Amino acid sequence: MASTWRKVLRQTSVLLSPTRPSLRQIHEPLPKIPVRVSWLLIELITYVDTHCTINETLYREQGRSTDASELLELVQHHASNTSAPISERLSAFSSAVLTTVIVQILHTYEPLLSYTVSQELLERGRTSTIEAIATALPKVRSTSRQVLRVLLGHLAHVASCLDVRKPVKHLSRLVGLHVVRPSEDPVSLNQRDAVKARIVLSNALIAGAASWPYDCQASMPTAKELLFLLKLQWPEDAIASEDHLLRCLNKYGAVESIECDLGSFKAKVCLRLRSSKPLNRTVLKLHAKARIYVVYAALQHEGDASPELRLSQGITETLRLLDDILADAPSNAFETHKLHESHVHAMTKVLEAEVRASQELLRLHKAQYDAQAKHWEVELTTAKLLRLEAEKLNTDLRQELHSTRSELACHLAMLSHLRRDSATLHERAVVAEAQTETLTREKSELEAQVLSLKDVAAKAQIRVESYKHQVSNQEDEPTDVKPPARSTDALANVKGEMSRQLQRQIDTARAAIAAMAAKDPATQHLSHQEETLSMLLGQLEQTQVAQEAGADAALSGARRKLQQLYTPPVDLGEDRVDAWTLELRRTLATAQRGVGRPASNADSLNAAKESLRRFQATLHRVGP
């Protein structure tokens, strides 16, 4: 069953992989890792090995993408702009972020075991793997060997600390596959046999990390391509941009790295050329077609060969280049010399202009600084004046606040005093209302008394007529008898007493109004109370006048009725007249002696009622 499954997997892999060269996608090889990036990668690996906790999730757990991007940008910045170490800033990142960036850097550039070395080791298979690795390491660049030394030692240390089954194989799947890559074709890399072979090679590398010859001398290049370091120059209008320069160089070989200074019209290029294309022909073609001049050329070997070998090769290539240049017509040399002279003259002018511009810029900066300093002094003086003005305003505001608080205290005291006065006036108004109600009740009582007196006067009319008749018949009796007490006198006394009481109330109210007027009416409520009291006093005066008029009218009516009683209109019988005369005499005698009033009530109304009762009893006794 297992063999059938493997067979189906192989057939599927074959069907999925393109067979014809015309249909196979071409994957360009990645650039070699720069020296500065390799040293930064060594710092990252060393920091993870010494400062991070080693566990099963190391290199398996992915860090946050934002932190990983930030750390990768930091590495690129240090690789291009500064030579300072990066280990001081690594404490801000987690171990997962550090391992993620290490794997990304390994996958971004050419593998540490180059494509040719990886392909050679994979083609040998499992046979004599240790000897094959020891033989192939001298073909690797010295910088890549140093990175391999640190990386493989770190992976061996991690494998010795992990408590998992087959830790070396575990790390080979996570990291070792990025070290051994024969190409960048994902189809060929992900085939089962290729993955197994890469894992086996990675296991061997990690297992023998301490025994590999990292410091061996590099071997002579046997490849079909050579790497040259070229220093280039060109006229001002020959190259427009770095992309233009790359397009011109890619026609003759593969550009490994480039450092371009467009302002100085210079560049430093690592160019990989086939051995079938001599360097002298490439130099002549660059000069003739693109007007690019090679001022320096040196052979660079991938394995960093010995200095003597590199020097001899450089001298040989330089002599060949000079021979080819001298073999050309003299006009080319003259043109080259003239071009160099014009270039030097132009560069001199540019430098002089830059110096003048720098001086002018310095002068402008100095003038700007002086103007800014004066402006700052003016602003400082203005700020000081504003501070003094603010302090003065603060003092004035404090004084105003103190005076306002004093006025507020006075107003509060005045308000409390006015409230007390208002309470007093309210009490007086209540007393005045009570007095008004008392006067109203007294008025009602007086009206009732007036009505009673009217009734008494009506009933006494008959008795008065009899008195008049008796008086007319008694001519022999003395006429100096005092008239009896009348009810009108009692009414007059009551009227006088009421007038005196009303006058006293009016005087009291006027005194209260005068006292109120003497004070300062500060609020609308006090004014309203004063108007109310004035209205009450007016009503009291009107009531007094009305009561006096009513009393006068009642007295006038009583007098008229008494006058009618004293002058009877008709004649009475002799017997009745005699009886009335006798009763009148008795009444007069009683009046002369004084009417006996009850001790409990000495009012004239009771006396009148008693007289009326006696008169009626006399009438009943006499009878018709």
UniProtKB/TrEMBL annotation:
Keywords: Coiled coil. Residues 21-213 form the Rho-GAP domain. Residues 387-519 form a coiled coil. GO terms for biological process: signal transduction. PROSITE patterns: RHOGAP. It comes from the Eukaryota. This is Rho-GAP domain-containing protein. It comes from Saprolegnia diclina (strain VS20).
